[in-house]
Amino acid sequence: MYDIAIIGAGPAGLTAGIYGKRANKKVIAFEKLTAGGQIINTSKINNYPVTPGITGPEFGQALSKQAEDLGVEIEYSEVAHIDNNHDYFSIVTEDGNYTAKTIIIATGTEPRKLGLEHEDEFTGKGISYCATCDGAFYKDKVVAVNGGGNSALHEALYLSDIASKVYLIHRRDEFRASDDIVEKVKAKENIELVFGANITELAGDKKLSSITLDTGRTLEIDGLFVSIGRIPNASKLIDDLTIVDDDYVDAGEDCKTNISGVFVAGDVREKELRQLVTATSDGAIAATAAIKYISANS
Ligand code: NAP
Q: What is the rounded CA–CA span in Å between residue 169 and residue 156?
């Protein structure tokens, strides 16, 4: 039986793993995609202490290596469900079942979709949710980014160095991004700001070739990068977990959920500021709480 089972090997989960191993606990982290989490899709990290300019993949790889070198086991499979047996938990995955004394949910979030007809069909064929992953396919082409938050503006800036033209489409006439990035976007000659517009139609033959806006305008584009926020999906993991808003796990800064022995860390927790630094902070707090819980219950 593991002492701590972490669901999600992003910055929050892997930091929890590091703290768990440093307290000599038996730790496993489950990851359905790539260890490192969402941060590996970030081009440059400039707001985390000590390593300005480090790329997301570099950060993710270094963090995974640090965790694995300490002895965190990373199991690459999707967790279907966690059963609460009250003095321990059973973790059901597609590749087998595991048991643990405590659980740390660090599943992060996934991209919010537009919900339009043909969106799934054109995903990977003109529609992407990650500029650093797919931007290179659009060298000297015309692309659009949808969204008005920090992520969308970062995506637009990144793409403006690759594509010939970037339309940045936002439903309001004011961004919700930091002033410095807004200024950088406004200074880019090949970014056209399209305010007060929603995408209503995706069109193309086998691959996306144009989008229509509710302003009546149609844009001929080679690629669309959707960056309209992210959504968590934690409620299905374990019965009776208290969730709030759009499926975020309800827990305070102590990272304790309503279920004894279950902790939560990172973007999936209901909180004010979702950043790398708050994710790693949560990981440390959740692991420390799990370690105390194990001592108190053994
Ligand atoms: P976000 O801040 O929630 O922004 C989402 C954007 O998408 C908003 O502009 C929103 O419009 C728009 N939107 C939402 N639903 C939409 C829909 N159905 N159709 C059209 N537009 C829609 O999300 P995010 O940019 O992914 O950022 C997530 C968190 O990470 C934020 O806290 C952000 O500050 C942080 N972050 C920080 C950095 C950094 O370098 N500091 C970088 C990336 C992300 P409205 O504005 O009209 O609501």
A: 10
